Amino acid sequence: MAVPKEAVWDRDPHTAAKHDLLKRYLEAWAPILLSRKDVITYAEGFAGAGIYKQGEPGSPVIAYDVFAGALHRYPKRMRVILMEEDPRRVRELEHQMALARSRHTDHIAKRLTVDIQEGDFHPALLEKLRSVGALGQPLFVLLDSFGGPDIPYSLLHELGHQRGTEVMVTFGPTFLTRFAKKDEGYRQRGDEAFGNQEWQTVFQQPSSHKFTFLREQYRGTLRQAGFTHTLYFEMVDEGGRLLYLLFGTQHELGLEKMKDAMWKVDPSYGVRYRDPRDAKQQMLELELEPNTAPLRRILRDFVSEAPDGRTVLELQRYALLETVYRPTQVIKVVRQLRDSGVVTTGPGAITNKTRVTMATAAPEPSPSAEQEALW
Q1: Topology of domain 293-372, per CATH?
Q2: Phi-psi sector, 76: left (phi>0), alpha (psi -120 to 50), beta
Q3: 197 by DSSP, 3-state: which?
Q4: What is the DSSP secondary structure assignment for residue 147, as one 8-state letter?
Q5: Domain 13-273: which CATH class?
Q6: Residue 174: which of 222, 236, 248 has the closest Cα?
Q7: In terms of DSSP bridges, do strands 77-84 and 39-44 run parallel, antiparallel, or are they unpaired?
Q8: Residue 110 phi/psi, 5° resolution?
Q9: What residue spans in the chain does CATH classification 1.10.10.10 cover?
């Protein structure tokens, strides 16, 4: 979306989806880390005003309320660090955070500190995190800009090489594909965001592949920065403009919890995604009954690559690390593959230890048969 000129603006459905995802993830993230550490930190580089025109809470307020709830169970401490460059939004943010604090007891508020900084987020955010000792400790950084590319690779690299840091980054490919080829300034911003010039190969890609190419290049940027595991969420606004939300972590548990959150986001918000391992690149909508046809294709191919087959535990870990799906969805899919004659398993119930092998002359399911198997 374009940068709003107003201090407070209308919240679009896709912002609501981001907030739903963020809330669900932080509700899992905070208790896990508070059970292990004495202090954890949450930071935002583009905090906004903390509220939208119709009174909906912004991400800083959502995060604060989640953390206050978690601190009722754990006698620990949390830091919230918020950066915002627009002075009008800073004033409103201070007001909204004061209101959030007033909803909780003084005992909680004393252990949940809020530090609001006015100014450009970089390098000020990194300097602030370093000064309070947050680097190297559990840290979640939300870099939710208006699409950019606004996040320099140097910041991601510094964060990614600190153990315990996770990031959620907004990335919009439109400006790079529309303007960067002829505009040196945009190309330079792209170089700074990706950390190299390899992304400029996008200009030689077919139009239909440009966005996907940039998305995968940016996932590579996150991995190069030190975030060994990445997920992406594809959002399209009312005007058809596409925006990616990317998550980076070093920990498999964080990846698993983010997947749990993404599959629970309200489908009315318009979030969708594709699995990068799916050869057909089928678009997946969030639904009450998830579409697992791509996972069936992916696991079938993975099993076929091993002469002795794979255990269910191997398939679950592959689903976690290499697909958008959750490990808990694997056993059901294996059962579907076995019932359709594609794979074989040992007798009895399917468990983590069950070995899955390709059936002799396994049938190739038709698209219509795959679709019917979903319902």
Answers
A1: Arc Repressor Mutant, subunit A (1.10.10)
A2: beta
A3: coil
A4: S
A5: alpha beta
A6: 236
A7: parallel
A8: -70, -25
A9: 293-372
